[in-house]
Design a protein that fits this description.
This is Transcriptional regulator, TetR family protein. The chain is an all-alpha fold. It has helices spanning 2-5, 10-25, 32-39, 43-49, 53-76, 82-99, 106-113, 120-140, 150-168, 172-186.
């Protein structure tokens, strides 16, 4: 794997390696030595590029957040129906669950491993979650007047669905959560 990464900059190789290892093994289970070895970089490169493993984790989450935003923007392009714009998040989560062999949501996994809400990793997770909820609120603007809890209910359905995929090793919980969200939005 190192040979395939050898042409990129050390910081990029570290992020690519983190992006491969963290979802498979867990963030805290992956040691710095493993990251350095598989990325083919020196410890000084990690500290020069990121300063710490925690900062690498934040960069990894920020990279995933940017990727998720881009995929979502592309997926909703041309969708006028507000319900469809919300439900596409569930569709994307189902595809990601399959692609990642049902290892759970990268952000929920990170939140579990870094429970301190003031930790930079928890802050990166929350920034992503705020963005998701803002997209749903934006899509539903004008719908559900007086239903200030609608987005929060969607978040619970979404979180339950993506967490359920990890336990069941199946996309079925997200599919069920999607159907429940559709019913909620129809009411």
């Amino acid at each position: 794997m190192v040979a395939a990464l050898s042409s990129s900059r050390p910081a990029e190789r570290l992020l690519e390696t983190a992006g491969r290892l963290f979802p498979l093994q867990g963030i805290r289970a992956v040691g710095i030595d493993q990251i350095l070895s598989e990325a083919g970089v020196a410890k000084a490169s990690l500290y020069q590029a990121f300063g710490s493993k925690d900062a690498l984790v934040v960069a990894y989450l920020e990279r995933q957040d940017a990727a998720d935003r881009a995929v979502y923007r592309a997926a909703v392009t041309g969708l006028a129906d507000p319900v469809d714009r919300v439900l596409v998040s569930f569709d994307l989560a189902m595809a990601a669950a399959r692609r990642r062999s049902y290892r759970g949501c990268l952000f929920l996994n990170a939140a579990t491993e870094f429970p301190d809400p003031d930790h930079p990793v928890a802050e990166a997770v929350e920034a992503h979650r705020v963005w998701v909820r803002a997209r749903w609120a934006e899509a539903l603007a004008g719908r559900g007047a007086g239903r200030t809890d609608l987005v929060e209910r969607l978040q619970v359905l979404y979180d339950g669905g993506v967490a359920g995929t990890k336990a069941s090793r199946s996309a079925a919980p997200i599919a069920l959560a999607r159907e429940m969200a559709r019913e909620l939005l129809a009411g």
